[in-house]
Amino acid sequence: MTSLPLILRTEHPGDAEAIGRLHARAFGPGRFARTAYRLREGATPLADLCFTALVGTYLVGSVRLGPAEAQGPLLVLGPLTVDPSFEGRGIGGALMRASLDAARAAGHGLVVLVGDAPYYRRFGFSPVPPGRLIPPGPVDPARFLWCELVPGGAETVAGNVSAVRTR
Q: Which CA distances in Å does 62 have to 14, 16, 52?
């Protein structure tokens, strides 16, 4: 396999349209009804924590982190998206590490997401303890995950998780 000339960078304002097309290709129209989407609905992603992956000028991956709260501040990750034709090449992992490292460096304490535990475990995610945080819709408890970015980052949150809406 040849290595890709991958460029990883923070998301630019002009990337929104390409990211929208990427999400549509990867997740389809049903994505808007999922709890994972509802966790982020109405929140503006935090620009300094959002990253894209490009091969040449073609956007092949994206990850976003946005603000949320549950009796205290936290971040919601998602979506992590890699173009289906570029999966299995480490792009998702590179995006995850960049985003989590940036959130840690910015002093954030906790990230939650809805996703595949075996995939996200390698980045430090584990299932949210039952009853500790309540997502805004039904979700398999084994797929509702969190990651402490700093020791004790989960101690200040509990209850209903909601996106911090842009006003």
A: 13, 10, 4
Give the C-alpha separation, 62 to 78, whole Å.
Answer: 9
The 3-state DSSP class for residue 75 equals strand
> Which residue, chain included where needed, has tokens 């989590």?
100
Measured CA to CA in angstroms, residue 63 lies from 1, 46, 60, 152 at distances of 25, 11, 11, 25
Whole-model pTM: value is 0.89
pLDDT tens digits for 57-92? 889 999 999 999 999 999 999 889 999 889 899 999
Helical ranges in the chain per DSSP H: 16-27, 35-40, 91-105, 117-120
Classify residue 93 by its DSSP letter: H
